[in-house]
Amino acid sequence: MSFLQILWFVLIGVLFAGFFFLDGFDYGVGMAVETLAYNEKEKSQVIETIGPVWDGNEVWLITAGGAMFASFPYWYATLFSGYYLILLLILFGLIIRGVSFEFRAQSPEYRKPFWDAMLALGSLIAVFFLGVMFISMIKGMPIDANGNMKAQFFDYFNWFSIVGGVALVLLTYLHGLNYITLKTKGPISDRARNYAQALYWVLYVGEVIFALLLLFQTDFLRVHPILTWVCLILIVGFSVAAHICTFSDKQGLAFTFSGLTLVSLVALIFCGLFPRVMISSISSSYDLMIQSASSSNYTLVIMTIATVILVPCILAYTIWAYWIFRKRIEMPRVGDGY
């Protein structure tokens, strides 16, 4: 296994971590439109918090998929063919979520509730099935000696993957509530903080159940015991830190810690997988390994050069976008933009 192969495995993990940190609160805000806001004015206020940045955040997901395709084509082929239906559902959620922003802005008042519901539903679908995909993947899927995955219904949907999907929905929802608290003023901000203070108690229960299932349903503790425990402690620790910050009204820190909780979850998955990229439930000899699933050294060198040039541009654009739209949303505006 070469340095470049390890580097690109880590970089793909970083891209997914960036996606869940930045786009995670997008999904949470999308779900909060139907569960937090009481009327159309408040819904417009909530949507306006992510209106300028949501599409830029999704670049991280596209980049992670593209990087996987180029650097680990065998991983990409097995994942995208084996999870075809799950990925189709994720894409369906992303589409109805994406179009709801534009259609809502152009619709008359009586049709806005429909697009509000589509935004919430699309956010929920995308996050839940992302959780199902990643958690079922670390449990192990029926991958044969040729790298083909022929899974049945209960390979995708089992107690572990469903708990993982629900936990990811709750994590992103809390991340969204912390973002709304940070980005708005008035009753909606206070309500988001109150919701977060109550829901973190539910999250703790989910984290304990998830940790127990992880220990019994995967080989993470046997393969990487120290890293597994470190990541689990970080997940719980960042959740507690975010919860404490919601009580002390440290809004920026609460948002940061809830984002780091998601980053720790991604770290747990990638640390547990290493040096594999996919786990076979048929036989460990059929696991897809970093070394055998990667592109040629020449391809990885070209990709590394391109990354060194392009990543600073992406980071600069992201920072600039958040800086331009840094003001809190004070006045609900109906029929104006988002």
From TrEMBL:
Q: Organism, per UniProt? A: Lactobacillus intestinalis DSM 6629
Entry membrane topology: Multi-pass membrane protein
InterPro entries xref list: Cyt-d_oxidase_su2
Q: Where in the cell is it found?
A: Cell membrane
Q: What is this protein called?
A: Cytochrome d ubiquinol oxidase, subunit II
Q: Which UniProt keywords apply?
A: Cell membrane, Electron transport, Heme, Iron, Membrane, Metal-binding, Transmembrane, Transmembrane helix, Transport
TM annotation in the entry: 6-22, 83-103, 115-136, 156-177, 198-220, 226-246, 253-278, 298-325
What the entry lists under Pfam families is as follows:
Cyt_bd_oxida_II (PF02322)
Say which family it is in.
Belongs to the cytochrome ubiquinol oxidase subunit 2 family.
Per the record, the coiled-coil ranges are: none
Keyword flag Lipid biosynthesis? no
